[in-house]
């Protein structure tokens, strides 16, 4: 792996429009999925507002779902790669404004932040003489709301333990109730807190964790029936349905694609 460092104004995808407004560089771009962006990093603080579509971002510490209308925050130099299963449009924002970057909330799903993102897109598309100062003000407002949302979304220790339990335990009997008992919280409280912090349900996280483990096993050449049973699926058909739903391809197609890559 030879990750690329993207400098100011560089980005992947099909460019739709770009603006330099004070301290902010804005790039509206589109990826026509399915497809992937290779491992890369940005030299400046880098924020992406997902206008429509969505994608999965891979990091050294794990994966994160970047859904439509979410704000994805990257620390300077953060190494990541992106997988797209459908056409996705994003607004990328570079600036020298820095936050206290930690792993508490790399993806922010906030109605107030999403509303600001929509207003920025509207100003870019209906550009007039006042748009630059309006957009610059909206950018400051967006970053302020994002910082507020990050503080509000601090992940408690018990919730980190639940996330770890999901990632390491592929037993088909893992349930919301069992995870709640292990964390000593009510299942309803776990469900609400998990969705608020991670933008997905506990069930979605369990499925994603099992599919990610299945991908590793399939890439290693294991038989699909063994992969299905060892990764918490009831049978191979269950694996196939879930795998296709999350990745856009069947396990067999994924297996063939890995063989082609290995051959090269």
Overview in brief:
With 264 residues, the chain is α+β, with helices and mostly antiparallel strands. It has 9 helices and 11 strands.
Detailed description of the structure:
- The chain is α+β, with helices and mostly antiparallel strands.
- It folds into 2 domains: 4-152, Sandwich (Jelly Rolls); 157-263, Orthogonal Bundle (Arc Repressor Mutant, subunit A), CATH 1.10.10.60.
- 45% of the residues lie in helices and 24% in strands.
- It has helices at residues 111-125, 131-152, 157-168, 176-183, 187-198, 202-219, 224-230, 236-247, 251-263, and strands at residues 4-6, 14-21, 24-31, 35-42, 46-52, 54-59, 62-67, 71-74, 80-84, 88-94, 107-108.
- The strands form 2 sheets. Strands 2-3-10-5-8-11 form a 6-stranded antiparallel sheet, covered by helices on one side. The protein has a 5-stranded mixed sheet with strand order 1-4-9-6-7, with no helix packed on it.
- A hairpin with a 2-residue loop joins β2 (14-21) and β3 (24-31).
- The protein is globular.
- The two termini are 15 Å apart.
């Amino acid at each position: 792996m030879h990750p690329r460092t993207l400098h100011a104004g560089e980005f992947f995808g099909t460019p739709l429009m770009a603006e330099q407004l004070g301290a902010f560089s804005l790039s509206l771009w589109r990826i026509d999925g399915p497809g992937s962006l290779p491992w890369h990093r940005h030299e400046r603080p880098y924020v992406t507002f997902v206008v429509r579509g969505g994608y999965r971002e891979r990091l050294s510490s794990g994966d994160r779902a970047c859904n439509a209308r979410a704000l994805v925050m990257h620390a300077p130099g953060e190494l990541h790669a992106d997988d797209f299963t459908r056409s996705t449009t994003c607004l990328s924002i570079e600036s020298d404004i820095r936050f206290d970057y930690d792993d508490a909330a790399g993806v922010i799903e906030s109605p107030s932040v999403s509303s600001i993102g929509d207003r920025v897109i509207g100003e870019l598309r209906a550009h007039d003489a006042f748009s630059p100062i309006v957009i610059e003000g909206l950018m400051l407002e967006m970053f302020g709301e994002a910082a507020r949302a990050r503080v509000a979304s601090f992940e408690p220790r018990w919730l980190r333990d639940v996330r770890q339990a999901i990632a390491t335990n592929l037993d088909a009997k893992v349930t919301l109730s069992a995870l709640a008992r292990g964390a000593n919280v009510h299942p309803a409280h776990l469900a609400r807190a998990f969705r608020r912090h991670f933008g997905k349900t506990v069930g979605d996280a369990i499925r994603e964790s099992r599919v990610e483990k299945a991908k590793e096993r399939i890439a290693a050449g294991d038989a699909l029936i063994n992969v299905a049973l060892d990764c918490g699926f009831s049978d191979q058909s269950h694996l196939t349905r879930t795998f296709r739903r999350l990745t856009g391809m069947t396990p067999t197609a994924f297996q063939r694609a890995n063989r082609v890559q290995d051959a090269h």
